[in-house]
Write a structure and sequence with these properties.
By secondary structure, the protein is mainly α. The protein has a single domain, classed as N-utilizing Substance Protein B Homolog, Chain A (Orthogonal Bundle), CATH 1.10.940. It is built from seven helices and no strands. The longest helix is centred in the middle third of the chain and has 16 residues. It is globular. The termini are far apart. The relative contact order is 0.13.
């Protein structure tokens, strides 16, 4: 599975955090990963990255709120917010992913899953973080 496909799976799993209580996320993660047909190493990577992001959501949201002028995470669309969270995690906590790659991937996913304004919104917020 390509890095882009893995990133998309992480996005879809992370999107669920907006709809389930923290106590239910473990079960949601298990169900999501069970439905995927992929190699064990990819499953472990997706699960680990998801758990790392969720464990830092408060910190990530604080970073977003500091740069998002006129917007707070509570007002952002769920797709946009999820993509921004994923990219912020990659930019700030994963040394092997260049910031430009994280931003580009988030913008590309925004084109597929967000509204017409999502790509520019996501790009604008992330550009302020680097």
């Amino acid at each position: 599975m390509s890095r882009r496909e893995i990133r998309e799976k992480i996005f879809k799993l992370l999107f669920r955090t907006e709809f389930y209580e923290e106590g239910d996320l473990s079960e949601q993660s298990r169900l999501f990963l069970q439905e995927l047909k992929q190699e064990a190493q990819d499953t472990l990577y997706i699960q680990d990255k998801f758990e790392q992001i969720v464990s830092r959501l408060t910190e990530i949201d604080d970073m977003i709120n500091r740069v998002a002028q006129g917007w707070k995470t509570s007002r952002m669309g769920k797709v946009d917010l999820t993509l921004i969270r994923l990219a912020v995690y990659e930019i700030k906590f994963e040394e092997d992913i260049p910031a430009g790659v994280a931003i580009n991937e988030a913008v590309e996913l925004a084109k597929s899953y967000g509204s017409d304004d999502s790509p520019s919104f996501v790009n604008g917020i992330l550009a302020k973080l680097v």
